[in-house]
Amino acid sequence: MPKMKTNKAAARRFKITGTGKILRRQAGKRHINEWMSANVKRKLRGWAPLDKTQEDNILECFPYTKYLR
Q1: 5-62 pLDDT, tens per residue?
Q2: Helix (H) or strand (E) holding 36
Q3: DSSP symbol at 60
Q4: Which residues sit opposite 22 in a β-bridge?
Q5: Which domains does the chain have, with CATH numbers?
Q6: CB contact at 8 A, 56 and 10
Q7: Which end of the chain has fewer beta carbons closer than 10 Å to its terminal beta carbon, N or C?
Q8: Which uninterrupted H or E stretch holds 14?
Q9: For the whole prediction, is pTM greater than 0.85?
Q10: CA 12, 9, 7, 55: dihedral to nearest 10 degrees?
């Protein structure tokens, strides 16, 4: 049997924690943000949990994940 391949596009966009949570980057900070206050831009930093409705779709892209649902 050949190896199963991880979807590399998903691997760059999502992160799976040790407890099985899927994290995504915050949206809305790429461009057209000169009008934003510093507080708004600061809140868009970092990672946010993925919505439960999307988790099954994303986990299909990671065949070797320890925590499959």
Answers
A1: 999 999 999 999 988 899 999 999 999 899 999 999 999 999 999 999 999 999 999 9
A2: none
A3: T
A4: 16
A5: 8-59 (4.10.410.60)
A6: no
A7: N
A8: strand 14-16
A9: no
A10: 70
